[in-house]
Amino acid sequence: MHFHFCTCNCPSRKTCHCPRPSERTLLDMFGWLxxxxxxxxxxxxxxxxxxxxxxxxxxWEGFSPEAGEKLRASGLRYGIIVTEFMDGTGFNKGTPRxxxxxxxxxxxxxxxxxxxxxxxxxxxxxxMVESNVVALRERGPSxxxxxxxxxxxxxxxxxxxxxxxxxxxxxxxxxxxILEALEKRAHVVWHGTLIPLAERDSLFRATRxxxxxxxxxxxxxxxxxxxxxxxxxxxxxxxxxxxxxxxxSSLVDSCPETLDxxxxxxxxxxxxxxxxxxxxxxxxxxxxxxxxIMERALDETCLSGFAMPEKHVSTGTLWPWIAxxxxxxx
Length: 330
Known about the structure:
By secondary structure, this protein is an alpha/beta fold. The chain has helices at 22-25, 27-39, 65-73, 106-119, 133-137, 173-183, 197-205, 224-233, 261-270, 273-287, 290-300, 318-329; strands at residues 2-6, 43-47, 56-60, 78-82, 124-127, 142-144, 163-167, 188-190, 207-212, 236-239. The radius of gyration is 20 Å and the shape is globular.
């Protein structure tokens, strides 16, 4: 089977000022999914601006209402990856960058309308948040997908770490407050903007304890990419506490309710984090092979016997229009 991933509607387009913002936010996840699918014998391709008329298209959630409706009407076969917590009327209980008591702003509302439009034409859903699956199955075949282990994802070389703490990712008010508090007690390397993947990976491997700080105080789920990178690189991680845990996140310690995150991060640094990382790596390899995770996802979303269309749907006029709508909404 041929799976064609497209990142044209990358939701970070507003906050990442690079030619290809998706390269800084989605390609990590794509690498995991590609590894699992290719290990199962499937063909996988990626585009930043074009959908395929013949493959099974896979897009990440993050649509404007106009683009979602055009995609629904396109006649293409596609599924949607849902990366965020669904709260019933939107995602994440509001926009993470907002510091208002009520974060359910216009961006929040439009994102949900766009998702509803695109979802109405989707053939399947892969969710990175397990609690979403029940609601998504009311819309179509759905599966919870974790980011598991693959030999091809293990870094070829990891330098000896020389930095105590580092953080990379989208900066939110909640994250900034924690970083500033930790900076008063330790040396922390962090950036206010997203950085290129190669630079990010180098910083990650050069760090003893990588910080996985929730975007908001009421964040629901751990970061699968941060935990996965720590496991694959055999690096320490200070994982913020969340109501939802995964098999992957259970391989590392998370901040207990009784401890402040800054104190927890300092405890991680002063512990035998190297031995813990080695043990976690071996468990990750044994318990969460990415190939098995994707095999289950294909079975649960009825894609193991998915029939490809006999006649190709032309996107010659439809897809450029959809792409323009996404660009305009950004």
